[in-house]
Structures are given as structure tokens and as C-alpha cells.
Amino acid sequence: MGFCFEEELKKLPAKPGVYIMHDAQDAILYVGKAVNLRNRVRSYFRENIGRGPQIDKMVSLIARFEYIVTDSELEALVLENNLIKEHLPKYNTLLKDDKTYPYIKVTVGEDYPRILFSREMKKDRSRYFGPYTSAAAVKDTIELLNKLYQLRTCNRNLPRDIGQERPCLNYHIRQCLAPCQGNVSREEYRQQVERALDFLNGNYGTVLKELEQKMKEAAENMEYEEAARLRDLLNSVKAVAQKQKITDSAGEDRDIIALAREERDTVVQVFFVRDGRLIGREHFYMMRGEGCAKEEILGDFVKQFYAGTPFIPRELMLQYEIPDRELIEDWLSRRKGGRVKLLVPKKGSKEKLVELAAQNAALVLSQDKERIKREEGRTIGAVKEIASLLGLENVSRMEAFDISNISGFANVGSMVVFEKGKPKRSDYRKFKIRTVAGPDDYACMREVLTRRFMHGIDEQLKLKEKEIDNEFGSFTRFPDLLLMDGGRGQVNIALAVLEELGLRIPVCGMVKDDSHRTRGLYYNNVEIAMDTRSEGFKLITRIQDEAHRFAIEYHRSLRGKAQVRSVLDDIPNVGPARRKALMRHFRSIEEIRKAGVEELAGVPEIPEHIAEEIYAFFRKEKKTDAGEKE
User: Fold this and answer.
1) How many domains does the chain have?
2) Each residue's pLDDT tens digit, 612-624
3) Based on the domain organization, do 124 and 191 belong to the same domain?
């Protein structure tokens, strides 16, 4: 039965919750939250009240809706975020980057703590510093701290394992105090850890003075190697200290968020400030229609980003006042376990920081537009160039095929797919040739193409009969252009297969010269030369190389499997379990070959009649070998 909108709209409760819009294929178009589901969902189906073309288009595609009632609007907010991250609906604002940021983790809950690299913050009695935007910088800092304070990097369980093993290399090169040997008391080791924590909190002055004093003393005592080591540590500390820029003398944790937008492209810039220091910045892309306000995009970013990040600062400084500000503040405060404020600075240094973030976002957007244009030239532009050269329209999907074998051994075929000039690897397919025994590339290609299109026709029939749901399978969709790795011969094979199946698909050959380099296209019985500097020519070369690579890799994997064999594989009634049992018992093929029936039957998994077969097999093998030598 069809979905009756009038009846379903009457059933909507006047309660908070989440609503989900589906299209005719049951794909999720949009997920939204509402303080009153009845009023909110009904508003979509009223006459146009200036909501914009993007929403109008979405409404025209809605085939049904469903909803989930919650106890509060806050619960609806959390559920909305989870559903958006799970289903990535087309008409929601989607955060394209799902990154995890590195932290420095100090395991203060251990008797002898360690400093570790982590990408998540857990409630495990450890102290976390970050998040940082550079994993390399985090690793460098950890390495520096371990050298500076000679802390352990091993996974030994201390104090349980003290004295059980020899100290590692770090102890011998003076980079670990070796608590595993009991060389340092727990209190002394803890003092070193506290100094490392002090360093991570940004107090570098004490460390710099200590290192400089020790370096001078080592030089005066003519301990030049030690002085050089301390000098290198001193330079490393200075390098880390110089990367920290003071932005707020109050020492607060805050994120500064602003965006830049041009047509359908939006970039959000975030500055991360920890303990009053700018530790890094990151930008994110948002996907949304032209009719969406900047305030709404910024609000969607805040909800999605902070639903996934393990650390929430005490303060978010925003470029615009966002919808549901108080509700989002309440939600973030509950997630953090402390008060979180959302501010829109209007003057002073804070406003300048937000303006700086907005300028950076605009710069990223401007730079990336040029990159996107170049990328489109390599992909969509190249496809248009090929289509124009062949006199075709609307070329989007291209499929290329290749055959690989060695003197007819393990014939295989490959199918690679490019859509809008980019490889669609999820649609790649490989074929093990079933009907061709020798090195006949034309016959192999005929089999591959026949199987590919027969499978596609079968899937399309099942789709019409509602036996399958996948409308966009790799075989169901036929190409706009078929590319063959070769000239006239390969093209004619493809045309013959298509004619037998009643299909009309343009077929083009990728012609190579005597040096096996692409030189042009073969289409409609004519070889078409191409400008070797053009993007279209470069795309054809990439497709041809990709089809060849995919076929070669598959053929190589089959050869490898064929070569990983044992003489035991040829013995009747000896399967994997018995092979393993024999090798466990005798250790080598030679010992099995020499063994008598009684010895073979002594293996628990080998019955006596199987032992006789194994014994007879090796004696027969020996006679055959002798005959071949003669």
C-alpha cells in the first residue's frame, strides 16, 4: 500500500523528536529535529512560503517520512546528530572531514607513568594534552620529553616486573632511568614526570635554564659529547617553545570558529586555543545548497563537529549567532561535564581573532577553488574532450577491459570503471577465464564481455521484477563508452558481442605504437590522433594503465597461489587437516617420503589404509622420477 500523507500527518504528535524524510528508493533525504513534530513536519507540505529552491526540490522527492519521539529537545538534538553521521543524507549540511586529532597522554594512573601518543581521550585516570593538529609535532614532543626526563617507553608492568628482564637500549644510551631494574625510586621517577607535565603546561623557562647550566658545566669539565647532547636538547626545547603563540593571558581553552562561503562551497576555519596558547588550526568543508543562511551552516557545523570530538573547550567564539544557541550550550555542557559558553564577540581582541579565522577560511576557499578547477580539468574536462573528439554526448561512465596471461597460463580479464574522469574502484571486476585454454586474447575478451553484459542484463531484469534493490550495481549500469585495450581487432570483438546481445554502446580502441605507448583512438573504423599534451590524452593513458595494472595484479595473485603447493596436495584422500598432521609429526616432506606404513599410521589423524596410500604414492613417484631421468 502507498504512503498516505494526509493520514500520516494527522498522526504526528505535538512532542519533541526527530523526523526522517525518504525518497521513492527509500534512501534518506533529510534528518531534522523539532520541538513540536506535528508543526514542523506539516510545514514542509504547505504551499510554498519562500523556503527556497533547495527545500522545494527535496519536498518534491519525499515519498514517505518517519519520526522518533524523544523526551526533550536536547535528546532530539543528540539523536539528529547521530542519524546524520550514520546516514549522510543528501539534503543535510554534511561535515565532509571526519578527522580524529592527536593528543599527548600521560599515564599518571600508573606507578611509573609513560608519555604516549593517542587519538582518543578516555576516562582512564590519565592526563591528556591537546588536541593538536600535527601528529608529527606530537611525536617530536613526546620524543623530546622522553629524552629530556629519561622516562620509560616500554610496556612492562611495573613494579611487578622489576628485575625480571635486562634493561633496554634506552638505558644504555642514557635515555631511560631504568625503573625496570629498580635503579630509581617511585618518588624520584614521579618528580621527573611532574617536570614533564610542567613542560606540557607551557612552563619552559625552568627547563631552558637547567639545560643551559648543565651544558656549560659539561663543557667546563671537557665532557664535550655530553655538552653536545645537552645543546641539542636545548635547541629542541627552544623550537617547541617558539611554536606556542600567546593569544590570551587568561589561559583559557577555547575554539574560534568562522566560515567563508561562495556559491555552493563553504569552508569553516577553527583555531584551537589551549591554556591561552594557539596550538593549531584546521579547516573543514561543508556541503549545502545556495539558499542556506550562514548562521544555519555554522550551527550545523558546531553540532556535528562537537558530537564527535573527545575534547570540548570551555568556550566557543563564533562568527555568527547560531540557531538553538542555548540548547546547544546545554548539550555541550552535559557532554563536557562543565559549563560551556557560545559567544559572538563584537569588539576587541576576541573579535579580531574571529575575523582572522574568517580571513583564513576565505583564503582556503580561494586557493581550493583553483585546485578544484585544475582537478575538474583533469577529470570532467578530459571526459568532455574525449566525447567531443568522438562526437558523443553525455559521456560519464567509461569501462575499460584488458586480458593478462603467460603463454596461455591462468587467463584472466580485468574491468575498470571511470566515472566523470575518476576511477570508481568499487565497480572494478576481475574475471577468471573459463572457456579458453590457450593464449587467445580475442577469445578471452569475447568471454569477458559476454559475461559482463549478460550479468548486467540479468540484474536489470531482476530489478524490474523487484527481486533486487540495488539500482546502481557495477553490472546493472552500462557504460556510456566502452574502451578496449587495442585497435581494430579488439573493437570488432566488442561490437560483435554487443550486437549478439542487442546492445548499442559506443566502442573505442586505445591504440598503442610499436613501443607500447598510447598514440590515439580507434573509432568507427578510423584511427583518431590525439594531442599528447591534452588532458583527454592523459586520461586515456591513465585508464589504459589502470586496466593493465588491475589485470596483471590479478594474474600475479593466481600464479602465486598456484605456486604455493606441496607434493602432499597430489595424494588422494589427504586433505588440509591430514597434511598439517603429517607435517607436525614428521617436520619435512623428506621424512614423510622415507617413513614406512607403520610410522605413517602412528599419526593419530592417519588411518592405516591412508598410510598405505601415502606409502604407495611416494614409491610410485620415485619410479616415475627414475623413468624421466632415463
Assistant:
1) 5
2) 888 888 877 554 4
3) yes
